Amino acid sequence: MPRLRTPLGVTAAALLALVVVTAVLAPVLWGDRAEAVDTAHILEGPSSAHWAGTDALGRDIVFRVLVATRLSVLLALLSTALGVLTGLLLGAAPLLVGARVGRLVTAGVNIAVAFPGLLLALSFAVVFGVGAMGAVLAIGFAIAPAFARLTGNLVASVAERDYIAAARIAGVGRFRVLVRHVLPNIGEPLVVNATVAAGGSLLAFAGLSFLGLGVQSPSYDWGRLLGEGLNSLYVHPLAALLPGVAVVLAGLAFNLTGEAVARGIGQTTPLFVAVRRRPPRTAAPTPSEEDAVLAVEGLRVGFPGVTPVRGVSLTVRRGEAVGVVGESGSGKSLTALAIAQLIEPPGEVSADRLEFAGEDLRHGPTRAQNRVLGTSLAMVFQDPMTSFNPTQRIGRQLAEVAEQHQGLSRRRALDRAVDRLRAVRLPAPQRRARQFPHEFSGGMRQRAMIAMGLMGTPALIIADEPTTALDVTVQRQVLALLADVRATTGAALMLISHDITVVGQVCQRVLVMYAGRVVEDIGTTELATKARHPYTRALLAAVPHLRTDRDLPLTVIPGRPADPGDMPAGCAFAPRCGFADDLCRTEDPPLAGGVACWHAANLTVAGA
Amino acid sequence: MSALNELSFRDVSVRFGGRRRGVTAVDRVDLTVPAGTVVGLVGESGSGKSTLARAAVGLAPLAGGEVLLDGRPLPRTPGRHGVQMVFQDPYSSLDPRMTVGASIAEAAPRGENTTAEVARLLDLVELAPERAAQYPAQLSGGQRQRVALARALAARPDVIIADEITSALDVSIQGTVLNLVRELQRRLSLSMLFISHNLAVVRYVSDLLAVMYLGRIVECGPVDDVLGDPQHPYTRQLVASAPRPGGIPTVLTGAEAALDTAEPADPHHPPPGCRFHPRCPVGPLVLPGRDDCRDTEPDGSRRRHQAACHYAAHASEQHNTRSTP
User: For chain A, does the N or the C end have fewer beta carbons within 10 angstroms?
Assistant: First the structure.
């Protein structure tokens, strides 16, 4: 198991080892001495011969507690195993016997879960008879419903995965699907819970034995010893305390192990890494262009171990529509998030210059700057379902922006929300404002998101893959809306997309990103004929459109996208580029004259 | 594996949920994938195209009709029979705990030399045989999709259903997978149902094209005919919306704008008559007197490349007189 080398993990492992070793060795070493009846020393207090005194037949309590470890732990494990196995089968029932019968089983399990476990165990003990076996069954079946529910939930989360469907289509039987595909993928949480359940059943077993419903004389476990010791609690308390301590220690051993394993599984990334804002490298950045609404130079975004954005420079002028194109991992979304000050720790942002609407944002936004960001910068994300609060009405959520940043009253803010919803041409805005996000279709949600950006007076709208989750007809509507909003409000637009044709439709200028850098900056009208960077050209050629020649294979870009964790020394595109030479492989080309390529000049001639 | 097999859907319906509040995701669909050809299936999300695919492999229950392979009905439960499917997301369609080789071998018929067979299949999808020992996490998206394709081929299918197999891939990778699919389809003369929301992608790989809207096929025919001269107004809208280099999305005005922003039809309550009429630019909301669209469902089978529209012929005239985008 991963990451058990924490203080918690070490303690748990040591305790568990102690319990197991005692369970194995104690009956062998001290079995006889624990059974030795000594009528001369009945119910004695601690002495040098008997550290914790003796019981009603003069037997040594320390040895009895030690020897009882085996039976106590064994019975606890047995009942846990029974419970876990039953739980597994019941929980996996929908997968094994089909949806209809499975639903009945699940309903039964849900009723059983609502039953208090101890009550269940007590009534089972009566049904199965008083004795160790009855208690094992009782505790086992008491554990089962909770475990079945857990298994059921986990199975349901995995059963919808495509690889399960693929295995079933390929003719893999149900039981094999369960064993080969489902259990390995839900094993970890089950193991954790089984370990914790073992601790619980140890305690429950001690309880049942203590009540006289568990282990019967002449056998003895901790619960029985506890019960016997309790009779003479006031004479010598150790006789009752010692088995109690043993129960607590063993229970702790199981539970802590479960905890340690759970933490080892859950925690894969360091939780707290301070955000450091590196001081800008150059002291005096070049003066900004007069009409730039956004000016970025040398923007870097780093996470522990990787730097996905490696020095992005871009300018967006007032009212301009700029597209940012790149594949996944090119750093286009992180660039947008960094501009909007939305990079969370452990992410780290640094820049030589990061100015939005004249405000320097390199050192994190101040309160005043936050207000500027809130009213002048609008963000539209790919999945509007996750950017809205599902429990609040759309109108309310829009109004909140105006209340927060513009200090409007509740009433007026809501009126403005309705007005903005009308501005994005949402039908029946009055009624729609009172609806919840789930009552909106994807396209309408995206409109509402744009409307939210329009609650202020945006100088820049950053739209990150706004149409990727939408259908083509809806995509066209949303793109047309963005173009329309830009025309009517004069806001600049930064449209981020993986699809170069989408960007080409709405924007005047396109920035092509590859491996955390801008590799080409080109006007949209020149894109088709005058693209110079080999990556831009390859990208244009690789996307099929409605006039692609179907008799020829599609142009492809060989190799795979650059790995941000393992950047080549020179140009990041060199390993996939047909024009690459030694210079490209050793020196990273700067963005000069709109293109970052050593051979751009030659390629234009060759391509023209 | 020279498969000369025809997959056909006869009057297929798929319903989810109860009688009152259920959804008819696929409604009386007739569609044939002729032997050795690729039929492209397009439509917006929720139109039922994926459900139709899942019905063919037994993952969605048929409420009516039947799916035939070479005239024989397919069993209604999933299993290794004739039709195999490649899924959209290669990150969830491969078991993360199984090696590539084990995933492929599992789908192959028992009692074969699996190592050799896995190597042969990996070679078929242009992957090195050493990949068999790797886990999906060690592969890129494009490579995973190749593995998924190899697994589908392992079962010796007669028909392959490709459900949005490139939409989770990066554009630079998409091309290699599309090339491979076309190459394999021709080499093995597979019959294929190729589902995608991307018209350009579908056009590139398909021979025939079917357009689905709200659970029904509204137009079907040879791909160049359907895209070159779309008969159904919905198809026309799809073609017009497809992004093309340099094209600027137009902002519509008046009645068309109202239609354009109209709420997409709710599959729980499909509109009566022609299902497209509330959004139709040549329908009763725009042109008076076309009330038959509201109450009679158009039958596509009699029209040129099967467009299910009462005014298919008029529609194209209408279209030509308007300024084309």
Answer: C
Cβ of A168 within 8 Å of Cβ of B178? The answer is no
- Residue of chain B minimizing CA distance to A187: B97
Contact A7, A251 (CB under 8 A): no
Asked whether residue B321 carries a pLDDT value surpassing 70, the answer given is no
Provide the shortest C-alpha distance from residue A26 to chain B (in Å). 41
B253 has a pLDDT exceeding 60: no
| C-alpha radius of gyration, chain B, whole number | 21
What pLDDT score does B258 carry?
59
Q: Which helix (H) or strand (E) holds A378?
A: strand A377-380
Could you report the per-residue pLDDT of A440-475, keeping only the tens digit for each? Answer: 877 788 888 888 888 888 889 999 888 877 777 778
The 8-class DSSP code of residue A111 comes to H
DSSP state of A510: E
pLDDT of residue A288: 53
**Helix or strand or coil: residue A285?**
coil
CA dihedral A254, A256, A257, A263 (to 10 degrees): 150
Cα–Cα distance, B69 to B51 (Å, whole number) = 18
> Strands B64-69 and B7-16: what pairing?
antiparallel
Cβ contact, residue pair A474, B258, below 8 Å = no
Cβ proximity of A145 and A106 under 8 Å: no
At B38, the pLDDT band (50, 70, 90 cuts) reads very high
CB contact under 8 A, A169 and B201: no
Measured between beta carbons, the chain A residues lying within 8 angstroms of B244 are: 501, 505, 545-546
Q: What spatial distance separates the first Cα and last Cα of chain A, rounded to whole Å?
A: 60
What tens digit of pLDDT does each residue of B150-193 get?
A: 999 998 898 999 998 988 888 778 888 899 999 999 998 899 99
Chain-chain contact of A161 with B200 (C-beta, under 8 angstroms)? no
Dmax of chain B from CA atoms?
68
- Asked if A185 and B85 come within 8 Å (Cβ–Cβ), the reply is no
* Residues whose CB falls within 8 Å of the CB of residue A311, separated by 6 or more in sequence, listed in order: A298, A299, A300, A516, A517
Instruction: Indicate yes or no: CB of B78 within 8 angstroms of CB of A480.
Output: no
Rounded distance, CA A155 to CA A144, Å?
16
Encoded tokens for A221: 């476990």
Question: Would you state the structure tokens that stand for residue A280, as one six-digit string?
Answer: 């800008």
Question: Is B251 a residue whose pLDDT tops 60?
Answer: no
- Other Cβ atoms within 10 Å of A409 Cβ, number: 11
What is the token pair recorded at B62? 């048929």
> What is the nearest CA distance from A161 to chain B, expressed in angstroms?
6
**% of chain A beyond a pLDDT of 90:** 13
Mutate to test the interface with A, among B16, B139, B172 (most CBs of A within 10 A): B172
Percent of chain B with pLDDT over 90: 33
List the beta bridge partners of residue A294: A316, A356
How many Å lie between the alpha carbon of A351 and the closest alpha carbon of chain B? 28
- Chain B residues with CB under 8 Å of A183 CB are none
Using the structure block, give the residue that is written with the tokens 């006031």. Answer: A234
Four-point Cα dihedral A469, A472, A476, A478, nearest 10: -20
Task: Decide if B106 and A180 are in contact by the 8 Å CB cutoff.
Answer: yes
Q: For residue B96, give the nearest of A168, A185, A538 by CB distance.
A: A185
Residue type, position A184, single letter: P
Neighbours of B269 (CB within 10 A): 8
Looking at the predicted structure, is the pLDDT value of residue A62 above 90? no
B44 to chain A: which residues are within 8 Å by CB?
471-474
